[in-house]
Amino acid sequence: MVKVAARKLKDEDLVGKSDPYVELWLDDKKYKQKTTTKKGTLTPTWNEDFKFNITDDRKHSLHLKVLDEDIGDDDKIGETKIDLEEVYKKGYVDQWIKLPALFGLTSHGEIHVVLEFSKH
Predict the structure, then answer these.
(1) pLDDT value at position 42?
(2) Which H helix or E strand runs over 106?
(3) Cβ distance 23 to 33 under 8 Å?
């Protein structure tokens, strides 16, 4: 299970504030999911649950891409990926992760993820 929030996002709009949403997927991109769009905020909280089915091969990463919804093409605010090995070991991870800018010298904000792994 995955829950997400963000703070200090880079504003991609010339007028007003960004309308962020997040796309989430595992390495294969077969099952991409996305949050709802939060209008006019740089500190969104989604409070949405996302579930992914994991195979026995535990070499997975969760990819998160934060976008600004616009008329026409959406602007990328930032993206990151999380190695899920720690989640498999501990069963639960709660952390803030920076969204690195070009070359990782600055940040386009942070994304908060709460990850929970359970066997079924």
Answers:
(1) 94
(2) none
(3) yes
77: left (phi over 0), alpha (psi -120 to 50) or beta: alpha
Residue 66: CB partners within 8 Å, gap ≥ 6?
6, 9, 20, 21, 22, 76, 77, 78, 79, 99, 108, 109, 111
| Full-model pTM | 0.89
b/e map 20-34, b = 16+ CB within 10 Å: bbbbbbbeeeeeeee
Backbone angles phi, psi at 20, to 5 degrees: -80, 150
pLDDT in tens, 43-76: 999 989 998 887 766 678 999 999 999 988 999 9
What is the percentage of the chain residues whose pLDDT exceeds 70?
94
* Nearest alpha carbon to residue 6 among 120, 114, 82: 114
